[in-house]
Amino acid sequence: MHPTRKAALMSVVFLAVVATGCEPGGSGSSHRTSAEPGCPTALARAERAVKKAQDVDAPWKGPTTGPSAVRGKSVVYLAQTLSNPGAAGVAQGVQEAASILGWHARTINGEGTPAGIRAAFERALDLDPDGIVIGGFDPGSVADEVARAEAAGIEVIGWHATAAPGPSAKPGLFTNVTSRVEDVARISADWIIARSHGRAGVVLFTDATVPFAKHKSDLIKKRLATCPDVKLLSYRNVPIPEAGKRSIGEVRALLSRFGDKWTDSAAINDLYFRHSAAALRAAGKDGAGAPYNIGAGDGDPSAFQRVNGQRYQAATVPEPLSEQGWQIVDEFNRAFAGRSPSGYVAPVHVTTAANSGGALSWDSEGYRQAYRKIWGK
């Protein structure tokens, strides 16, 4: 059984904390003031949504039927940057699942730059694979290369490549594997509203170079605005490849500008908090205290470590990274067999120290067994 399933009782305790307005990871002192929250309707809605999203029971609800394994295929996973643990985690899932089918799978690092991504795509095309994965970057930035792949009969699948899951006609993707960005954005904002009892000062980090990421952060901003006493202090564009060198400076400037008014943060990817922890620590901030940070993806092992240890990240909305790698391989198998995409989208989940059970990942129970049964492997 996944360790998170063993944490149900702890999750109930955490939900009681949220309902009473106490700070997660704190000493148990109440954040609530005597004043009523400025958004009682939004707060009640947020508390219900957070309670549901923290449920640790996750039986497999994905596909159970599909084509048997097609033999002798090769696929290439193009990562925007392997310094993004989410993209790297999915790449590992692709490698693992492809090996089960006897396929040849290769990962190429785009190094986080437009030139690097285009060069990586060119290398992939030179390999003449059966399938290419666009891993975490805008297909529009490589439109010519995508068109060449289509002309060569190469199937292209995205991961976090477009704003919505499922097939795409332009750009031409057999399917895009991701959670529903609307669900992730909504629950990230709701967690802040519930945690703060409707009174927060929020900093929001995004990567405006990736349409999927920018869309997500815009939706978080919109959801936060449903609570008038949750103030968006700053909306920061820090591209993922630059997060390592820019986050510390960004955090220092924000602390200088807003001080204790900055109570919460949301970011489109957990790695922002990996890089900002040093600045928060240097400023004397408590790792279990404000600002309370939630990552709206990807839920990589380092994010779970920060959440579990209450080290400058209070929550994550994790993608089932390995599971999505397996789904990508299954979608390729459907494409190679002349079938339609599965249409599966993983449900949204929120992980905190109270419900993680010490785990370092989140995924549905039994996905490997389900896919192997479909493939006849």
What is the topological layout?
Elements: H1 8-20, H2 40-53, E1 74-79, H3 85-101, E2 104-109, H4 114-126, E3 131-135, H5 143-151, E4 155-159, E5 175-177, H6 181-195, E6 200-206, H7 211-224, E7 230-237, H8 243-258, E8 264-267, H9 271-282, E9 292-295, H10 301-309, E10 315-316, H11 321-336, E11 351-352, H12 367-375
Parallel strand pairs: 1-2, 1-3, 3-4, 4-5, 6-7, 6-8, 8-9, 9-10
Antiparallel strand pairs: 10-11
Helix pairs in contact: 2-6, 3-11, 6-7, 8-9, 11-12
What does this structure look like?
- The chain has 377 residues and is of the alpha/beta class.
- The chain has 12 helices and 11 strands.
- The protein has helices at residues 8-20, 40-53, 85-101, 114-126, 143-151, 181-195, 211-224, 243-258, 271-282, 301-309, 321-336, 367-375, and strands at 74-79, 104-109, 131-135, 155-159, 175-177, 200-206, 230-237, 264-267, 292-295, 315-316, 351-352.
- It has a 6-stranded mixed sheet with strand order 7-6-8-9-10-11, sandwiched between helices. The protein has a 5-stranded parallel sheet with strand order 2-1-3-4-5, sandwiched between helices.
- Strand 6 (200-206), helix 7 and strand 7 form a beta-alpha-beta unit.
- Helix 11 (321-336) runs parallel beside helix 12 (367-375).
- The longest helix is centred in the first third of the chain and has 17 residues, at 85-101.
- The chain is globular and about 60 Å long.
- The two termini are 22 Å apart.
- Mean pLDDT is 89; it is low at 3-34.
Q: What's the tally of helices?
A: 12
Helix content: 40-55%
Strand sequence of the main sheet, in spatial order?
7-6-8-9-10-11
Give the topology string: H per helix, E per strand.
HHEHEHEHEEHEHEHEHEHEHEH
N-C termini distance: 22 Å
Structure classification: alpha/beta
Radius of gyration: 21 Å
Indicate the proportion of strand residues: 5-15%
Q: Which stretches are poorly predicted, pLDDT < 50 over at least 5 residues? A: 3-34
